[in-house]
Amino acid sequence: MIYISTGIVALIIIGYLFSRKQKVPDLGVGTNELDTLLIQHVAFYKKLSDTDKKSFLSRASDFLSYVRIEGVGLTPEPLDRALVAASAIIPIFAFEGWRYPNITNVILYPDTFNQEFQYEGADRNTLGMVGTGAMNGQMLLSQKGLRAGFSADDGHNTGIHEFVHLLDKTDGNTDGKPEYLLDEHHLTPWVRLMHREMQRIASGKSDIDAYAMTNEAEFFAVISEYFFEKPAKLKEKHPELYELLEEMFNGNRNEE
Ligand SMILES: [Zn+2]
Fold it and tell me: What is the whole-number distance in angstroms between the Cα of residue 47 and the centre of ligand 1?
């Protein structure tokens, strides 16, 4: 009798451990490795306080638990997972506990995409794209573009660019007017500032990447790359734009 019940208990324990093991999602990168990779490659992360690093790490791991990172013609490396997660978390780091409701997969391509993917929503030389229609919930990213984005704080970052589009899309429209992030009092000045700066770019008087002239959605994504990679320079050169971006991305967090 004792043997039987011991056997049952053992089976229950094994079953429990097995089910627990099954439930832990495979992030494709361990937490310690993720921390190391972020310190080595992501300047935004490196500059955070220890407390904020911990929080960023947990948000990045959480992101990797609900979004699949896949590769076409490549096997995603731990570095790619770390950089995709960093691109996702940087724009939403100030929104505690917030998750992207509109993404399930990130698909990495070695370089730029094939022509078949060059439809609405495709970016500069198709380095990245947020899927629409049948491709809803998917993001395509060039592995080369993703890595290049984090290689220098030069104001260009494909990963951040695409996740800002995704954030913009949360209110239903990828239109450069993130209604979740700006109240109506700020929305009008924001649109006015965007148009003014687009004209300055057109007349060659702005240091902002000319791709921002494409439309308001691209302006928002391009200026956000600038904001997250070179905040001090943006503040100096474009104080009004900086202030509204600060309001959008940091909200009440950085009130001084
Ligand atoms: Zn874009």
Answer: 26
pTM of the model: 0.86
What is the domain extent for residue 186?
23-250
What's the pLDDT tens digit per position in 136-164?
Answer: 899 999 999 999 999 999 999 999 999 99
Residue 175 lies in a domain: yes
For residues 231 and 221, give the distance between their C-alpha atoms in angstroms, rounded to a whole number.
15
Distance, CA 251 to ligand 1 centroid (Å)? 23
Question: If you measure from the C-alpha of residue 117 to the centroid of ligand 1, how many angstroms do you get, rounded to a whole number?
Answer: 14
- How far is ligand 1, taken at its centre, from the CA of residue 224, in Å? 11
Kindly report the CATH number assigned to the domain that includes residue 209. 3.40.390.10
CA of 131 to the centre of ligand 1 (A): 12
Element (DSSP H or E) covering residue 220: helix 216-229
Helices (H) then strands (E): counts for the chain: 11, 4
Is the residue at 1 inside a domain? Answer: no
Ligand 1 is an ion; residues with CB less than 5 A from it: 123, 218, 221
State how far the Cα of 158 lies from the Cα of 115, in Å rounded to an integer. 19
- Could you read off the pLDDT of 5-18 as tens digits, one per residue? 666 666 666 666 55
* Structural domain total, the chain: 1
Q: What are phi and psi of 216, to 5 degrees?
A: -65, -35
